[in-house]
């Protein structure tokens, strides 16, 4: 009998403990949200107002056009079409979004990038993709896989990852992300295409490059794959 009570007490304490463990600030839905006192010049934390539920229609939860290939005629040979709550209003507050990734044959690239607000699971529909991610400091372990149609690969929250088409045909993938606005930070673009340019000495030391090389990189056009 006593044992039974102990068990119940243990469960109660455990469930309370897990409540405390999961209690945290909600994930941000944009890069930052600077506090302000003046309500008139404020935006909502998630950037969106909610429509009156009685006025919602099926169209609010629907989006068409992901059957259309993205244009990969660019310096990367890649195109990413991300459907966030901006394009699909019914996603607001639900913590999910979707992308279509197109990669040109023989080296089309979705360059190293990370999603500041989301994990990702990728499904290859067509082609052959070399995909990978790198863990954070201090290990920087590389996890890679060659993916064929029907293969999935997971990119954990906020880790740098990439996809390269290593086949002779176009590659297509769909990925789901765990935020209505996961954000995309393309590493090379953020570093070498920063606006204003980062003071070169920061980059010469950080990347073990000479100043001229850094300035040449900074002078290039850094185009996002979206
Ligand atoms: C794809 O983009 C290139 C470069 O911007 C452009 O010249 C071309 O017309 C585009 N193709 C299509 C089918 O839109």
From TrEMBL:
**CDD domains, alphabetically?**
cupin_OxOx
| Keyword Ribosomal protein attached | no
Binding locations of oxalate? 110, 115, 120
Q: Where, subcellularly, is it found?
A: Secreted, Extracellular space, Apoplast
Q: Where is the Cupin type-1 domain positioned along the sequence? A: 64-215
Entries under SMART domains matching the protein = Cupin_1 (SM00835)
Binding of Mn(2+), residues: 113, 115, 120, 161
**Cross-referenced InterPro entries:** Cupin_1, Germin, Germin_Mn-BS, RmlC-like_jellyroll, RmlC_Cupin_sf
Q: Which PROSITE patterns match?
A: GERMIN (PS00725)
Gene Ontology terms, cellular component aspect? apoplast
Q: What keywords are annotated for this sequence in UniProt? A: Apoplast, Disulfide bond, Glycoprotein, Manganese, Metal-binding, Secreted, Signal
According to the UniProt record, which cysteines are disulfide-bonded? 33-50
| Signal sequence residues | 1-23
Pfam families named among the record's database cross-references: Cupin_1 (PF00190)
Q: Which Gene3D superfamilies does UniProt cross-reference here?
A: Jelly Rolls
The answer to whether UniProt assigns keyword Ribosomal protein to this entry is no
Give one GO molecular function term: manganese ion binding
By its UniProt entry, which PANTHER family does this protein fall under?
GERMIN-LIKE PROTEIN SUBFAMILY 3 MEMBER 3
| Job description of the protein | May play a role in plant defense. Probably has no oxalate oxidase activity even if the active site is conserved.
The family note in this entry says: Belongs to the germin family.
Name the chain's protein.
Germin-like protein
Species this chain originates from: Salix dunnii
């Amino acid at each position: 009998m006593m044992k039974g009570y102990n068990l119940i007490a243990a469960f109660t304490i455990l469930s309370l403990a897990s409540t405390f463990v999961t209690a945290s600030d909600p994930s941000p839905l944009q890069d930052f949200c600077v506090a302000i006192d003046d309500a008139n010049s404020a935006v909502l934390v998630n950037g969106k107002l909610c429509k009156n539920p009685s006025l919602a229609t099926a169209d609010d939860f629907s989006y068409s056009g992901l059957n259309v290939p993205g244009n990969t005629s660019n310096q990367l040979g890649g195109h990413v079409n991300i459907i966030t709550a901006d394009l699909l209003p019914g996603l607001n507050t639900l913590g999910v979004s979707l992308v279509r990734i197109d990669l040109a044959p023989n080296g089309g690239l979705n360059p190293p990038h990370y999603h500041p607000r989301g994990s990702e699971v990728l499904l290859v529909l067509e082609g052959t993709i070399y995909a990978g991610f790198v863990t954070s400091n201090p290990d920087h372990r590389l996890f890679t896989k060659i993916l064929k149609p029907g293969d999935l690969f997971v990119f954990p929250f906020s880790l740098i990852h990439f996809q390269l088409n290593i086949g002779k045909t176009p590659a297509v993938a769909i990925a789901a992300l765990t935020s209505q606005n996961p954000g995309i930070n393309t590493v090379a673009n953020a570093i070498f295409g920063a606006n204003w340019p980062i003071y070169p000495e920061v980059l010469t030391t950080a990347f073990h490059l000479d100043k001229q090389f850094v300035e040449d990189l900074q002078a290039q056009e850094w185009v996002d794959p979206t």
